[in-house]
Specification:
The complex is a heterotrimer of chains A (319), B (255) and C (261). Chain A has helices at 2-17, 41-48, 51-54, 67-75, 86-94, 128-131, 144-155, 173-178, 191-195, 207-211, 224-229, 231-250, 255-265, 269-274, 286-298, 308-311; strands spanning 28-34, 57-63, 81-85, 99-108, 116-120, 135-138, 164-167, 184-187, 201-205, 215-223. Chain A starts with a helix and ends in an 8-residue tail after the last helix. The longest helix of chain A is centred in the last third of the chain and has 20 residues, at 231-250. In chain A, the strands form 2 sheets. Chain A has a 5-stranded mixed beta sheet, with helices on both faces. Chain A is α/β, with parallel strands linked by helices and 319 residues long. Helix content of chain A is 43%, strand content 19%. In chain B, helix 9 packs antiparallel against helix 10. The chains are: A alpha/beta (319), B mainly alpha (255), C mainly alpha (261). At the B-C interface, helix 1, helix 4, helix 5, helix 6 and helix 8 of B face helix 1, helix 4, helix 5, helix 6 and helix 8 of C.
């Protein structure tokens, strides 16, 4: 507790004093928690290219396995900013936890689908009759993948209650489908592209594309408390991050970008060549968050849609 | 047993638990702890009350206990059997020891990929995880117990020309039983712990899965409520074990 | 025992080799199953690929760094948990009243698995070294405690009566009778706990870590690199084996009168 208070004093002081390029000793430290996934590469780019340094920020990155660890860490004061998927963030907010969105993370673009439903070639997944009674593998129940898998079944006319959703970690999904533990699985890269190389498997649907093209899949979050006390710091963070996203989008296909992605995610360059690398979003699209929240309500994740206007940081994001 | 001695048995323990709970409640009310992250015992208990009233406790509890019972039973049988072999036979010990000792350090989450591949994503994998973990303390303690048997007893058995099986069941097992019992008690706790882990890694229901699910949904009060259920199960199982031990091993000189 | 010293030694050597032969046979089975297509999966590389990844990892020093980091944290937590377990175990073993006070608390906390406790713990300990050490200490404490209590209480009654006959003081009884009598059980607890400690530190790293072997294992899975993942697991296996052997050696030197080997 004391440590945090001291840090905040220092941060405010440093923010007030900085103008232009800050010397290393003057930089304010921000602890950002990310996952070693492609979505978080823009942060790495912004660090590498000095965009944060130019804003007087020293970014301390730590990695973890996602919202389940990241958000508690944020709330407990271990991090200042956390990257998380939309559903985890909304769940936390709906439970009264003090989180808010400050920057865009990732977006599901129909023209560059990274996350798709993979099933067995030759089997039918078209209509409600095909889907009901089947089992679909999702990485976590009550997560974003589960939600859109259910919404996809519904969109195809089926009743999600008649489909069984089984938890399978992403790396094990291909095995699960081939072994018939599940009939289909909602896979992310690089597992999706790898799986469809197998002759028995094929993409059988694009849940995000079919249900909600342009879904905001993830964001950067902070606590309301931190935002209230460090507005300028967050503006700098989002500015530098934005430049990182712009550079990344412009240089997606270059060897340099591939090298950065490969180093960060540990995916070998050969694998990277084969997967879909979508551009990262520059804006948070509030309407998409609202739509996701409505879906969450429809599928029983909460009783009512929470107040999205209070969920986004209005200083940084246009409602 | 008189009521006074019965009370003297459980009063101190109850007192210490109540003391901890009171301190926890006070800490939350005083604002020393964030109630969203560590709710007060009163809040947790009322959430638990709600779950109990809605009858939602029994299904998951039954799943967990069934899995645990199955895993524990298999682990004990395998542990004792292999432990006797390894304890009595030097050759047997040296044959299995490297394999056992190389497999033991492998953490269960690291085994998920091959387990899902070979045993699928359901009960078989979970059972394997529980057995694999709970088996080792029983094994180690059985080996230790068997090796520590007074040679006089074994010589006596030889004098009476007891057959191999008779030696095992009439001499070895009873003599090693105190040590085996220690192992079985440790294994009981491990079995419960690992059932929860297995449910978190590969389960779809049960107390462990629910604890993880509630945590992911940030329903913190419910998560703690289920942790209380888990703790209660642990206490109950331990008490049951002690009761059985008192009956079967009365010579162990308990107070 | 019949036979000369040499033939006993030779028999021991052959028996020891039989154990290794069993392990090698199983590994050969693994290799065959992958190469011959009995098991076909991206997640089941032939064992030789795992060996290659192991070699690469060792040569680059990466695996060694990871192992050193993980084992270091583990040992700190293990030492803390074991010390506390033995200390409290001696107290509770000797004083039935103290045990009645502590027992429900201990039994309440014991079954809670680390995986359930890590996210709430993160709130208080952050995601770093403190978390790893605490979770290891927490898990190590209980088996050592239980074994110590049992060891103290089951110490030979004959020896205790001998102590009384000789009118040994409390401290002397503790040092010369109770403690040595409890050592076999304590060591069994220490051995069990060491295994648990290694597993727990890895689990903590897998769930909430950013460094160490556990984190590397998860990362390799998600980077679609099963061979390095299995190489790390093999490393863990060997490290665990070595540590266990170490405890055995220490045990044998402390308890020369115990056991056949």
């Amino acid at each position: 507790m004391k440590r945090r208070a001291l840090f905040k004093l220092a941060a405010c002081g440093a923010a007030a004093a900085s103008c232009g390029l800050a010397r290393p000793a003057d930089r304010t430290r921000l602890r950002v928690n990310v996952q070693t996934i492609i979505d978080c590469v823009p942060v790495v780019v912004a660090i590498k290219n000095g965009y944060f340094a130019q804003e007087g920020l020293e970014i301390d990155t730590s990695t973890s396995g996602g919202g389940a660890v990241g958000i508690p860490g944020l709330l407990g004061g271990a991090y200042d900013i956390v990257q998380s998927n939309t559903v985890s963030g909304l769940l936390a907010f709906s439970q009264g936890l003090d989180v808010q969105v400050i920057a865009p993370g990732a977006k599901m673009l129909p023209q560059a689908p990274t996350t798709e439903m993979v099933g067995r070639r030759g089997e039918a997944y078209r209509t409600a009759a095909d889907l009901e009674g089947k089992s679909i593998g999702v990485n976590n129940r009550n997560g974003i993948v589960w939600l859109y898998a259910r919404a996809w079944v519904k969109a195809r006319g089926g009743d999600p209650a008649k489909v069984s959703f089984r938890e399978v970690p992403f790396p094990q999904m291909e095995d699960a489908v081939r072994r018939r533990n599940v009939d289909a699985a909602f896979m992310v890269e690089p597992f999706k592209s790898a799986a469809v190389k197998s002759p028995e498997l094929a993409v059988v649907g694009s849940p995000f594309g079919e249900v909600q093209p342009g879904t905001d899949a993830g964001h950067y979050l902070t606590t309301g408390k931190f935002a209230a006390q460090n507005p300028e710091l967050l503006r700098k963070f989002t500015r530098a991050l934005r430049r990182g996203v712009e550079w990344y989008n412009a240089n997606l296909s270059t060897k340099e970008a591939q090298q950065i992605v490969s180093e960060f995610t540990r995916l070998p360059p050969a694998v990277l060549q084969e997967i879909v690398l979508p551009p990262m979003p520059l804006q948070v699209e509030v309407a998409q968050i609202r739509r996701t929240a409505e879906l969450m309500r429809d599928h029983g994740m909460f009783a009512a849609v929470p107040d999205i206007d209070r969920y986004i940081n209005k200083d940084l994001i246009a409602p | 047993m008189s009521r006074r001695t019965a009370m003297a048995r459980w009063l101190p323990g109850a007192a210490s638990v109540l003391l901890v709970l009171a301190a926890w409640e006070a800490a939350v009310r005083a604002g020393a702890v964030n109630p969203a992250l560590l709710p007060a015992p009163s809040v947790v208990l009322s959430t638990l009350g709600g779950v109990l009233r809605a009858g939602e406790v029994f299904g998951p509890l039954r799943q967990t206990l069934q899995l645990m019972a199955a895993g524990y039973a298999i682990a004990c049988v395998l542990g004792i059997a292999l432990g006797i072999v390894m304890g009595r036979s030097e050759a047997g010990y040296r044959l299995f020891e490297p394999l056992v000792e190389l497999v033991r350090p492998i953490p269960k989450p690291a085994l998920i990929p091959p387990l899902f591949l070979f045993l699928g994503i359901g009960v078989k994998t979970m059972l394997f995880i529980v057995v694999l973990a709970a088996f080792f303390p029983v094994l180690i303690n059985t080996v230790q117990g068997v090796r520590g048997i007074d040679p006089v007893l074994l010589n006596t058995a030889r004098t009476f020309r007891l057959g191999r099986a008779a030696v095992v069941f009439k001499v070895v097992l009873p003599a090693a039983l105190p040590m085996i019992a220690i192992g079985m008690r440790v294994s009981l706790a491990i079995a419960l712990t690992l059932v929860i882990v297995a449910e978190m890694l590969a389960g779809e229901n049960g107390v462990g899965f629910l604890i993880l699910d509630m945590q992911r949904a940030f329903r913190i009060q419910h998560m703690y409520a289920w942790l209380v259920v888990l703790a209660a199960v642990g206490v109950a199982l331990n008490a049951a074990f002690e009761w059985v031990e008192r009956r079967l091993l009365p010579w162990r000189g308990r107070q | 025992m019949h036979g000369t010293t040499t033939s006993i030694g030779l028999r021991r050597l052959l028996q020891g080799m039989s154990g290794i032969a069993l392990v090698l046979a199983l590994l050969a089975l693994w290799e065959a199953s992958a190469r011959l297509g009995w098991v076909e999966s991206r997640n089941w590389p032939p064992f030789t690929q795992v060996l290659l990844a192991l070699w690469d990892g060792l040569r680059s020093g990466e695996l060694l760094r990871l192992v050193a980091s993980t084992v270091g944290f583990m040992l700190v937590g293990y030492a803390a948990g074991s010390a506390a377990g033995i200390a409290l175990g001696l107290l509770l073993g000797l004083s039935p009243l103290a045990q009645r006070f502590a027992s429900p608390l201990v039994e309440t906390l014991r079954p809670i698995p680390i995986a359930a406790v890590v996210p709430p713990l993160i709130l208080f300990l952050g995601v770093g070294d403190a978390l790893k050490i605490f979770t290891v200490a927490f898990s190590t404490f209980f088996p050592v405690l239980l074994n110590t209590i049992a060891g103290v209480r089951d110490g030979s009654e004959v020896l205790r009566q001998t102590a009384r006959t000789l009118r040994l003081s409390r401290a002397a009884t503790l040092r010369k009778i109770v403690l040595p009598g409890a050592l076999p059980a304590i060591f069994a607890g220490l051995r069990t706990s060491l295994g648990i400690a290694l597993v727990v530190v890895i689990v903590a790293e897998m769930v909430a870590g950013a460094s160490g072997v556990g984190h590397f294992i998860v990362q390799s899975q998600y980077a679609m690199q099963p061979a390095p993942m299995y190489a790390a697991v093999a490393c863990l296996s060997l490290v665990g084996y070595a540590l266990n052997r170490l405890v055995l050696v220490l045990e044998r030197s402390a308890l020369p009168w115990h056991g056949a080997s």
